[in-house]
Structure formats: C-alpha cells, structure tokens
C-alpha cells in the first residue's frame, strides 16, 4: 500500500511540474541544436586503402608463409606510415602549416585481423584537404618504403575521395542525447523544488506534518458565489418583510 501511495505521489509531482520539465527539455534541445549547427566546426573524413603484397619473381602461386609474412608486415607499416620520416615529407610537398605531431593527430590507421590490407584515414575541417593529405601520405609511403624496408610490396588499391558529409558533429545524435539529459535534469529539478517546498497546501499536509486528525474543512467561496448568495439573501428578506406586513 505504501509503494502505491509513493508512486502516486511521484506521478503527482511530475504532473504538477510537467510544464517546467518540458521547458527545460526543450531548452536543452534548442541549445544543443544551435551549438551543433552554428558553433562546432564540421570535420570531414577521407580514407585510402593500401595492400601489402610482394609479387614473386617467378609469378608462382602465393604460399601460406608469404601471406603470413605480409600480414605481419602490416603491423610494422602501420607504425612507419605515421612516423616523421613519412609525415615530414608530406608536409613539405603539400606546404602544410603544421608539425608532424599535429598531422599525426589527424591520422588513423586500422586493419582487419589477418588481412594484408590496412586503411589510412585522415580527418580535417576541409574535405578537399582531408582527401589530398590521405592520397599524398599513401604515395609518399609507397615510394619511401622501398628505401626504408628495401622491398617493393605496397600497392594503393583505393584512393581517398572527397567526403560530401561531415562525420562530426552528428546533429540527430546530439539532439537525442540533449533530449534525454534535459528530461533527466527537468525531473531532477521538479523533485528538488518539491522537496524544498515546505508550505501547507491541503488537509493531507496537515495530517502528515502535524500528525493530527482533520475535523473539518472550510471551503473557499469566490466573489461570484458570494454575490449570488448575498442577492439571494436580500430577496428572501424582502419576501419575509412583505408577508409580515
């Protein structure tokens, strides 16, 4: 019984503060939308795929050992492609106004398990520059790896394309998160206000706070009802006086 009453009281609090909760939630969504569309700078992403595979001299079939060797080389190449030996040359050829560490922060290298292909991804606020940097890193890496590893086993199988849509920010996701967060904040404020409100509003509050039984309740009469009752009383008094005369 206590749980039912407690749940009922919670619903009453939410119902009473419903407009405030709605305003807080709507405000959070509006602020998030404004920040997402007008404050946060969009970030674009472009990727190029590189294959590690050395062709044999006699054009024979690939052996399992050769494939496994290339797979192991992928891990090494993932480190080399982000090294200053490659990035400094890319910066010089593209005349980029950044250091190798700054360029490194824009790059992500990933590969599937037991795959001879790894993907180089570049993020930038300019979609054309992101594609340009990705392709340039791939070309520089392909030429420099011959000097570094003394082997020619790198092939670019997919060039980076200019992205049409940014990967960040994500407006719908951000607004959905703002909806949930705003709703939680609104509900929290509603319960906080209810907790801080110590005014007595009805007879139930008197019974709970003072622990005294309520013997009677005086109803509130508005002005319209009072005027109606007064006019009715005057008419009744007039009739009584006429009958007495």
TrEMBL record:
<dbReference type="Pfam" id="PF02706">
    <property type="entry name" value="Wzz"/>
</dbReference>
<feature type="transmembrane region" description="Helical">
    <location>
        <begin position="172"/>
        <end position="193"/>
    </location>
</feature>
<dbReference type="GO" id="GO:0005886">
    <property type="term" value="C:plasma membrane"/>
</dbReference>
<protein>
    <submittedName>
        <fullName>Capsular polysaccharide biosynthesis protein</fullName>
    </submittedName>
</protein>
<feature type="transmembrane region" description="Helical">
    <location>
        <begin position="21"/>
        <end position="40"/>
    </location>
</feature>
<dbReference type="InterPro" id="IPR003856">
    <property type="entry name" value="LPS_length_determ_N"/>
</dbReference>
<feature type="domain" description="Polysaccharide chain length determinant N-terminal">
    <location>
        <begin position="3"/>
        <end position="94"/>
    </location>
</feature>
<dbReference type="InterPro" id="IPR032807">
    <property type="entry name" value="GNVR"/>
</dbReference>
<dbReference type="InterPro" id="IPR050445">
    <property type="entry name" value="Bact_polysacc_biosynth/exp"/>
</dbReference>
<keyword id="KW-1133">Transmembrane helix</keyword>
<keyword id="KW-0812">Transmembrane</keyword>
<feature type="domain" description="Tyrosine-protein kinase G-rich">
    <location>
        <begin position="143"/>
        <end position="192"/>
    </location>
</feature>
<dbReference type="GO" id="GO:0004713">
    <property type="term" value="F:protein tyrosine kinase activity"/>
</dbReference>
<comment type="similarity">
    <text>Belongs to the CpsC/CapA family.</text>
</comment>
<keyword id="KW-0472">Membrane</keyword>
<keyword id="KW-1003">Cell membrane</keyword>
<dbReference type="Pfam" id="PF13807">
    <property type="entry name" value="GNVR"/>
</dbReference>
């Amino acid at each position: 019984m206590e749980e039912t009453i407690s749940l009922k009281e919670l619903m009453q609090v939410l119902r009473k503060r419903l407009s405030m909760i709605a305003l807080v939630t709507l405000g959070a969504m509006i602020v998030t939308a404004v920040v997402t569309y007008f404050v946060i700078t969009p970030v674009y992403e472009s990727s190029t795929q590189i294959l590690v595979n050395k062709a044999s001299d006699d054009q024979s079939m690939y052996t399992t050992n050769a494939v496994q060797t290339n797979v192991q080389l992928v891990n090494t190449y993932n480190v080399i492609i982000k090294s200053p030996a490659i990035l400094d040359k890319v910066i010089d050829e593209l005349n980029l106004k950044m250091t190798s560490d700054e360029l490194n922060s824009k790059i992500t290298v990933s590969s599937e398990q037991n795959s001879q292909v790894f993907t180089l991804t570049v993020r930038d606020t300019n979609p054309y520059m992101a594609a340009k940097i990705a392709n340039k890193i791939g070309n520089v890496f392909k030429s420099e790896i011959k000097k570094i590893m003394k082997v020619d086993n790198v092939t670019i199988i997919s060039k980076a394309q200019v992205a049409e849509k940014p990967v960040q920010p994500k407006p719908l996701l951000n607004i959905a998160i703002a909806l949930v967060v705003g709703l939680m904040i609104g509900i929290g404020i509603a319960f906080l206000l209810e907790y801080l409100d110590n005014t007595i509003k009805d007879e139930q509050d008197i019974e709970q706070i003072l622990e005294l039984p309520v013997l009677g309740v005086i109803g509130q009469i508005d002005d319209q009802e009072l005027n109606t009752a007064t006019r009715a009383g005057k008419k009744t008094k007039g009739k009584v006086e006429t009958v007495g005369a």
